Amino acid sequence: MQHDLVSVESLSAADVMNLIHLAHAFKAGASLTPVRPTYAMNLFFENSTRTHTSFEMAEKRLGMQVLSFDAGHSSVTKGESLLDTLKTIQAIGVDIAVVRHPENGFYQAVLDAQLTMGLANAGDGSGQHPSQSLLDMMTIYEEFGRFEGLTVGIVGDLAHSRVARSNMMLLTRLGARVIFGGPAAWYPADFATYGPHVEIDALVAQVDVMMLLRVQHERLTAETETTFEAGNYHNDYGLTCERAARLNPNAIIMHPAPVNRGVEMASELVECAQSRIFPQMTNGMYMRMAILTEMLLAQGLMNPTDVEALR
Ligand code: CP
Question: Whose CA is closest to atom 4 on ligand 1?
Fold first, then answer.
């Protein structure tokens, strides 16, 4: 892996498996520390609970110093660009910046500037969410020990989902079959390359992994939002208790969260025996430790022998 992680497109199957093995080693109790004091800053221009907190926890568990950043009180409010903000914190000594931003592909200008500091994309608009996708791969591998031969249903607000976009790319690269569900109008044309769109009742009987997506009200158009009705959505496209009863008994239920309980899935299914929603969050912290470790290694800030021993 390189010293940036902005999209899953740059990851080979071997890169993903190395990250999964490293994350599992951390989960089993392994620890690593950088070769010198290192500094991280998490710059979130969109709200977050899981991604922000688990990156910060991962940084602290790796012994990094975490500098605070508050977008609303930063010089971005005076018109400073994201690129100039990142150049500034690099000049001050930050080694890794973790950035969530509403603009798709915000990272391209940063990559073009060839900063020496590492950049982790914590979600860009409806573009990519690589760390979420990698923790999802870890959770699936933990359950099944393989990707080949698995069928994964990705259901919901596909049009706005950076999680769906990253996951369809990694799952197919790793050998899984992807099928999509949810409103047909929310099935982007470019998703067809990765898998077909089917009705949810046909989908539930086929899947090993049932992955629900949040309806992203903050990204719906005003027209779509006024015609949206939660109960109708749940009945037409959601994982109801009746549909969940028709899942394969070995199938697991995933959701990147936050969950709109009673909309994309019945509230009681969030904590059911087949749900892996909270284990996904736990795995997220370990996977982010693995991602940060590889980024630090690429900057010469981790001992290669120590990292290799855990992969
Ligand atoms: N899954 C996810 O990205 O959650 P947050 O928005 O809380 O970070």
Answer: 50
Q: What angle do CA 124, 129, 131 make, to 5 degrees?
A: 135
pTM over 0.90: yes
**50: Cβ below 6 Å to ligand 1?**
yes
Question: Using an 8 Å Cβ cutoff, are 274 and 7 in contact?
Answer: no
pLDDT, tens digit, for every residue of 146-187? 999 999 999 999 999 999 999 999 999 999 999 999 999 999
Contacts of 206 (CB under 8 A, 6+ apart): 151, 153, 179
Take atom 6 of ligand 1 and give the residue whose Cα is closest: 48
Specify the CATH number for 8-129+281-310; select among 3.40.50.150, 3.40.50.10300, 3.40.50.1370, 3.30.2010.10: 3.40.50.1370
pLDDT, tens only, 232-283? 999 999 999 999 999 999 999 999 999 999 999 999 999 999 999 999 999 9
Domains in the chain: boundaries: 8-129+281-310, 130-277
Residue whose Cα lies nearest atom 3 of ligand 1: it is 51
Distance 35 CA to ligand 1 centre (A): 30
276 is in an annotated binding site: no
130-277 architecture in CATH?
3-Layer(aba) Sandwich (3.40)
